[in-house]
Amino acid sequence: MHVRKLTGGLAAVLAVTFSLLSGQAVAAPDPVADHTAAARVLTYDASGSAEFRTAVDRGAAIWNESVDAVELQPAASGQRANIRVLADNGWPRAQTTSLGNGTVYIGRQAVDQGYNTIRISAHELGHILGLPDRKPGPCSSLMSGSSAGTACTNPYPNAAEQAEVEGNFGGELTRTAGAVPVGVLIVD
Question: I need a labelling partner for 71 at 20 to 30 A (CA). Which of 5, 6, 10, 44 fits?
């Protein structure tokens, strides 16, 4: 898992403030050095994902391995989840309600056509994390979705997709606007 990062400037300000309060002068930390901070935790409820539960859990784990600013965790029993994941007979899609919130549908139609369930899960979770479709696109782009073809099984976001999610959730102290509009159904 990536190391969670905090801007060096904030850490330097805190170090100087505490050193002034204690009466001792100390050197401020290097603002370029890595500092750890907590990721924004988003919970997901995959209880309605039927036979795709393992693929959904793996898709969430892939995002957790790929980015620092956000972490996807299964919702605790009785907890309201940020993301609801359902299986149905249609085409995979995501309904966003706000950045980090919405419903993902793992559609059996794409699975029946030969598309990889883990790639579908990671792709649809990418929409909830603020990423748009990038079609047509190569297999190396997770958000190219179905345009990469059924032979493509790559479930990992590329560096640009990772950076975009980091910017959506981890920016300095504020988030930049996400590329996916809120309240829009994204059908892949």
Answer: 10
Give pLDDT < 50 ranges for the chain.
Answer: 1, 3-35, 172-178
SS3 153: coil
Supply φ then ψ for residue 187, to 5 degrees.
-100, 125
Catalytic residue numbers read: 124
Per-position DSSP letters for 95-134, written without gaps between them: EEEETTEEEEEEEHHHHHTT--HHHHHHHHHHHHTTPPP-
Cα–Cα distance, 72 to 45 (Å, whole number)? 10
Q: pTM to 2 decimals? A: 0.76
Residue 35 to residue 156: CA distance in whole angstroms: 25
Give the single-character DSSP code of 74. E
